[in-house]
Design the sequence.
C-alpha cells in the first residue's frame, strides 16, 4: 500500500548557525515549522558553494552523472509502528514534488519522494516529531555533478534504525536498534526510548559516543563520520530506504548484528517499539 504524502509542504529551513540553534531545541517542542539541525560534514547535504549550472545539454555528459531530471527515493516502514515523518528542503532548493507535509508513515507501508535537479534536503523519521530524529539526507545538485547523494545521519540524534540501498546494494545506515544494546543514552528526549540526543553534534574526528558507537562508520554518528557517505554509489538513480531492524545492512556496519547477540527478547517485543 502506498501512503499518499502529497499535501501542503511544511517549510523547514537551515539556520547558518545550526549548531547553536539545534542545541537550543533539545528537549523542547518544535515552536514553529522552522528549525535548525546538524548536517553530516561530507555527507549528502554538506556541499560546496553553488556554482553556475552548465547548460542542460552538457549535464548528461558529466562523468558519472545520473542521466535523468528526477530522482526517486522509496521508503519502507518495517519498524512495526506508525511513525511521524517530516521533510526539509535546503534554502534555495526546489521542494519535493507534491510538497509532502508532516504526516504519519503507517506501519508496513511504503512511500516515495521525487525530487528534481538542484534539490538538497532531508527526511526525518521517528517515534515523535523531534528535530533530532534519525534522518535520510538527499542531494541531487550541480556541485556534485548531478550525481545522486544519500546518507543516513544520527548526527543530531537517534530515534529509529534506517538503512538505504542503491541498485539493491545497502550503502548507508545502520539497522542496529541502539536502545537495545545495553548502552546508556547520554541525553534522552521526552518519553521513554523515543529519541537520544547526540553529544557529538559539534565534535569532528570521532570516536562516536558510546551509545552511538555500534553504528559508527555505517550511519553518520558525528559530523565527519565519512564511512556513511554513499556518494558515487547511487548513479543508477535507484534509491530504496528502509526503517526497522530487519532492513538490509551495509557492509560497513559492525559485525555484531543478530538479535541474539544484542540480547533481544523476541520479534514481538521489537515490534512493540522497544527498538
Sequence:
Amino acid at each position: 500500500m502506498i501512503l499518499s504524502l502529497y499535501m501542503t509542504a511544511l517549510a523547514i529551513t537551515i539556520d547558518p548557525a545550526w549548531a547553536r540553534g539545534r542545541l537550543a531545541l533539545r528537549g523542547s517542542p518544535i515552536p514553529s515549522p522552522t528549525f535548525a539541525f546538524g548536517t553530516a560534514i561530507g555527507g549528502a547535504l554538506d556541499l560546496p558553494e553553488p556554482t553556475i549550472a552548465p547548460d542542460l545539454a552538457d549535464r548528461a555528459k558529466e562523468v558519472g552523472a545520473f542521466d535523468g531530471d528526477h530522482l526517486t527515493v522509496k521508503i519502507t516502514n518495517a519498524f512495526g509502528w506508525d511513525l511521524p515523518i517530516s521533510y526539509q528542503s535546503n534554502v534555495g532548493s526546489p521542494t519535493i514534488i507534491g510538497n509532502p507535509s508532516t504526516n504519519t508513515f503507517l506501519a508496513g507501508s511504503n512511500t516515495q519522494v521525487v525530487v528534481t535537479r538542484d534539490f538538497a534536503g532531508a527526511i526525518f523519521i521517528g517515534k515523535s516529531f523531534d528535530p533530532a530524529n534519525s534522518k535520510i539526507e538527499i542531494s541531487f545538485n550541480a556541485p556534485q555533478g548531478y550525481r545522486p547523494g544519500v546518507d543516513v545521519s544520527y548526527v543530531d540524534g537517534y530515534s529509529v534504525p534506517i538503512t538505504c540501498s542503491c541498485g539493491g546494494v545497502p550503502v548507508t545506515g545502520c539497522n542496529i536498534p541502539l536502545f537495545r544494546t545495553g548502552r546508556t543514552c547520554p541525553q534522552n528526549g521526552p518519553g521513554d526510548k523515543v529519541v537520544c540526543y547526540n553529544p557529538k553534534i559539534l565534535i569532528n574526528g570521532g570516536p562516536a559516543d558510546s551509545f552511538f558507537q555500534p553504528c559508527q562508520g555505517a550511519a553518520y554518528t558525528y559530523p565527519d563520520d565519512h564511512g556513511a557517505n554513499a556518494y558515487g554509489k547511487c548513479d543508477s538513480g535507484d534509491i530504496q530506504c528502509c526503517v526497522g531492524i530487519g532492513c538490509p545492512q551495509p557492509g560497513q556496519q559492525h559485525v555484531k548484528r543478530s538479535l541474539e547477540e544484542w540480547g533481544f527478547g523476541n520479534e514481538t517485543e521489537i515490534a512493540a517499539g522497544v527498538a
